[in-house]
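User: Hey, my collaborator sent me this sequence without any context and asked if I could get a structure. I don't really work with proteins. Can you help?
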Amino acid sequence: MQGYSAYIVKSSLQPIETTYKEFFKDVKAGGKLNRKPPRFHGKWTTPPSFPINYISAKVSGDSLFVQKIGWMKMAGNNPYPDGEFKSGRVKYECGDWYAYLTYEVQAEASLPHCIRGVGIDRNIADGRLAVLSDGTKHGGPDLERKIARRKRYQRKMARQVKGSNRRKVTKLRLQKAFQAERFARLNWAHHVSKEIASEYDVAYMEKLNIRGMTKSAKGTVEKPGRNVKGKSGLNRQILASAWGTLELCLDYKMEVCKVNPAYTSQTCRSCGHVDKKNRKGTDFKCTECGHADDADVNAASSWPSGMGLLDVEVATPAGHPATVDLGSVRNGEGWQEILCQLSYIIPHL
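Assistant: No problem. I've predicted the 3D structure and written it out in structure-token form, which is a compact way to encode the shape of the chain:
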């Protein structure tokens, strides 16, 4: 234990303490909070990582200093050189060490005259993973070559002898192939969320239970599932569409409001009529008023327009600073604190 910083040891035990406190609080409440006991991760199945903060670590330019380790050169650039380093985590992934650093950055925040809202409908079809109520369609990243490389390594690894050195090399390359796909989807989500947040202030999205939607349909021996192969393919498509990643990227850039997804694809945004015959594939035509539109655009527009929340005018007394609660934005003070996640590659540790 003497080879580690005291802060690293203490911080590593804090999540365990918090989990136990929540679990025993649930026990006293009679199980109403639905808290589960802590699960310890295996040594050989969990990537090694440790937390750092401004006490146990320092950041100077492209270098990172950690107590009892020393200075390390980081690859990449820091887009927030004037930001103040607060905390982070050093993690080993795919043969490299990564530093996920959190900065505090001061930025100007001004209150717009009109709070603009937009509805977002998420799909799995190519070219329309995220469809906005204004008609904009965002397609997913081009992963064809990355997926082909990953599948090639999977086939190669399946033919190799377990425990051989060649298989270990192929396994590392396979991990890097998976990582390249994950980073490409994360990069896409950041670009799309930045474009949406630059034009709108509030996003309305369906409240989807992604974990439940991607649950296996295999069933049990007593009650076997049906159409298991088709459901597995759908699960892969949903997970590859990065629904949850896009939602997380939007959540800290703007205000995100969740709405009930029931009947959104069957509701006409013009008259509010609900009928399953309104939608046929990607086309929408209301059987009541005759309104015709793209099915995904209509679904993205149905709930914000129905609640009158697409645009909200903001009026403030003259000479008084306006304060509107949109997440963590504090316009009355004229600034906001932004926690920026940055990822660097540490070549040697």
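In plain terms: The radius of gyration is 24 Å. You can pass these tokens on to your collaborator as they are.
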